[in-house]
Design a protein that fits this description.
- By secondary structure, the chain is of the alpha/beta class.
- The chain folds into two domains: about 5-155, 2-Layer Sandwich (VC0802-like), CATH 3.30.2130.30; about 175-215 and about 230-370, Vaccinia Virus protein VP39 (Rossmann fold), CATH 3.40.50.
- About 30% of the residues lie in helices and about 25% in strands.
- It is built from eleven helices and 14 strands.
- It has a seven-stranded mixed β-sheet with strand order 2-3-1-4-7-6-5.
- The protein starts with a strand and ends with a helix.
Amino acid sequence: MDYTLMAPCHFGMEAVLKKELADLGFEIREVMDGRVIFSGGADAVARANVFLRTAERVLIIAGDFTAVTFDELFEGIRSIDWPEYVPKNGRFWVTKAASVKSKLFSPSDIQSITKKAMVERMKQTYGVEWFSEDGDDFPLRIIINKDRVLVGLDTTGESLHKRGYRKLVSHAPLAENLAAGLIMLTPWKKDRILVDPFCGCGTIPIEAAMMAANIAPGMNREFTAEKWTHMIPRSAWYGVIDEANEMIDMSVDTDIQGYDIDDEMIKAARQNAEDAGVEKLIHFQRRPVSELSHPKKYGFIVTNPPYGERIGEKDEITEIYRQFAERYALLDSWSAYVITGYADAEKYMGRKADRNRKIYNGMMKTYFYQYSGPKPPKRTVTDTERG
């Protein structure tokens, strides 16, 4: 059976997610703020969950209708063929209801009415007045935007950013899927240098190493829909994991480095990299930004410096950005990509960014400043290499 599917993402990452889905061979149906709608069969649910780096989750769209009153919401939910999705003993509830620019805006009321409407529809099919809900989980998410209601069955469970490797975190770590998306917004490739001088618990270098080794981000975790065998056969999951394992290439030659001034963070980063299986592909080192350097040209800096949210930090943050700008200026032909919520970041970088992209890190508006260095000269292929 073919499904209409939806993958939410961080605001500002829609184009990256769309490309990921297209590269996986899925048909793109619609791109919206913070989400992309696509289509595919049962195997698409498994492939999207295992392979997508920038998505937050994968939803099966069970309903798509307009509602401006709670009566219309009730009828729209009740019209969905819920027994097709939820077995008689399934546990079903609305984990989240979100409403933007719509007549219906109370999350608790939306959740309550959705549950009642589902029960009414399922009573008709199953011929019972009460449901035990002692079976597998079928969580739902309701998204209402400009009175359009999207009803999604959450196939993922815990957000896709939870790859499973990051057990030790820094004060304000980037989500793994956001870190991956930032790297994918740059021209960096696995044969190029990548340095994160504010690496914290190592998320950006680890995500880069996983890309370099072609390690699927979701291959070492579980998903809610793995138990929905009436919709998605177990063979679909086994096939995807086999495919993911075959794609891994740990022989790749990388130059990925992560620095931090905090010894404990470097220890955490090394442990996280080990848990991700990429510790051999990354060099972590305790090093202040004032000592940022590299002997080679045409490298990339991708980093998430401190934002200075706490009172009394402004002078300290200003000095950090000033030092960073000084050291970056000495890196001949390098590119720098900096995500930050610090309003004066560009000022202290000493030059206007070539590009600036607005991205929401959770609820915080941040900017992704992009300083592009020159492209390296094309490498000459020798006669020996030509064969």
